[in-house]
Write a structure and sequence with these properties.
alpha+beta, 6-stranded mixed beta sheet, 439 residues
Length: 439
């Protein structure tokens, strides 16, 4: 890579990410999002040019590292749009590449979700496409926001979930509400996480469930109490739009359905919302009371669990939480802050999936994506078995990963806990959650 290009990329802050979107055929910039210090146009041209040069020589350039420790990842979608992710110094090469590849997949699917595949693959007017793409910016910015505590679905492609105290009541209400709206796809979102959903909602592609949740969070943040929003399903219906009807039930609790031309927004809001959800106001408040813990009061976590991410590999759902310790012994090493725990949990997940656990068993990946990723370390490829447990000790905390046929559990544990006790902490935590909730 040219010296000037490398120098310009070093201007990106440590760990920051910038996203570039260009037309694949001519390299016309469509938008730039991310880091506050944008790359110069000459650098963007160089990044596009080196990829085009490689393509002309029969080589697909997918990623590279810079002298300053940054990372660049390219991806072309449907031979129409090129996405380039550029990260500043920081992080291991394997972990960073997995994160950036996942980011590009999510951004493309986000663009399809909002605009539809036809508008992206059959570009007739570039200036009009630039204007239309602005409607994707709030979602794309949400994907780029690394400080988004408690939301890991963008990384895991498993739906961020909240386990309510009364799941049967909420599931029954969601089923009835969706059916009354002539739909089989309904979902209740509490604190940005799925608390209940219809069976057909869970049958959507995992990435679609994650992106629809992100869209719901974006619409909720806009301040509107209801909306009628056209969406395309990136895998299930990339060219035909559905209506997403969303209603705020209480601050922090929203319900939505995917439906056809009926019912109207007004009819659903004035009739169906009142009919199905007014009797459940107290149940919704109990659900909101679960908060960021995401687990009902029936689950008692051990005091030596700092943070956890639990993934159900069959249902493609996940729960995660970070606990703030109130009684920290004076002589023990200091505990990481809440924000740092979320960051460490994400890093530990990526570390696990790139080195020990098989990502392809957890995620639905196409052969093309599998060929492009290649994140697994060479020594893992030589294993005669699949690792089921491992631990990691750093200067900030201890971490333990546990994999069963149905679950994956990732824990952060204080340094004061003896290493020989980590497996006991993990197995007991998994048993306590599954026994109490059936997750």
């Amino acid at each position: 890579m040219q010296e000037g290009t490398t120098a310009s990329m070093m201007l990106l802050q440590h760990g920051s990410t910038q996203l570039l979107c260009l037309t694949a055929s001519s390299g016309v910039p469509l938008f730039t999002r991310g880091a506050s210090k944008q790359l110069p146009f000459s650098v963007i041209g160089s990044l596009n040019g080196v990829h085009m040069f490689g393509g002309g020589q029969g080589v697909v350039l997918s990623s590279c590292e810079t002298e300053g420790g940054g990372k660049v990842v390219w991806r072309v979608f449907q031979d129409s749009v090129m996405l380039i992710a550029v990260s500043g110094p920081g992080g291991s090469s394997k972990e960073e590449e997995m994160y950036l590849q996942r980011l590009l997949e999510n951004v493309w699917s986000c663009m399809v979700l909002v605009l539809g595949q036809d508008e992206l693959t059959n570009v007739r007017n570039v200036e009009r496409l630039k204007r239309d793409l602005r409607s994707c910016f709030s979602l794309i910015d949400q994907l780029l926001e690394e400080k988004q505590e408690g939301i890991l679905g963008n990384l895991t492609h498993c739906a961020d979930s909240l386990l309510p105290p009364n799941p049967a009541l909420l599931r029954e209400a969601v089923d009835g509400f969706a059916q009354a709206a002539d739909s089989e796809f309904g979902c209740l979102i509490v604190h940005g996480r799925i608390a209940a959903a219809t069976e057909k909602w869970w049958r959507l592609a995992p990435q679609e469930v994650v992106l629809l949740s992100a869209l719901m969070r974006s619409l909720s943040a806009s301040g509107s109490v209801s909306c009628d929003y056209p969406v395309f399903l990136p895998q299930g219906s990339p060219t035909v739009a559905h209506r997403l009807l969303r209603f705020q039930l209480l601050p922090g609790a929203d319900v939505c359905v995917l439906c056809g031309p009926t019912p109207s927004l007004h009819k659903a809001e004035s009739g169906l919302v009142v009919r199905f959800w007014t009797p459940l106001v107290e149940t919704l408040r109990d659900c909101l009371g679960v908060g960021e813990r995401c687990l009902p009061g029936s689950v008692t976590l051990r005091p030596d669990v700092l943070a956890l991410l639990l993934i159900n590999r069959e249902t493609r759902r996940s729960v995660s939480c970070v606990r703030t310790s109130t009684n920290h012994p004076p002589g023990d090493p200091p505990l990481p802050s809440k924000a740092r725990c979320w960051e460490l949990l994400k890093l530990f997940y990526i570390f696990s999936m790139t080195r020990y656990f098989n990502q392809e068993e957890t995620l639905c990946v196409s052969p093309e994506e599998r060929a492009q990723r290649g994140h697994t370390e060479d020594f893992v490829l030589g294993f005669s078995h699949q690792p089921l447990q491992f631990y990691l000790v750093t200067e900030e905390c201890k971490s333990f990963g546990l994999q069963t046929p149905q679950h994956q559990l990732f824990l952060l544990i204080p340094l004061s806990v003896p290493t020989f006790a980590l497996r006991t902490v993990a197995t007991q935590t998994l048993s306590d959650i599954v026994t109490a909730t059936g997750f």
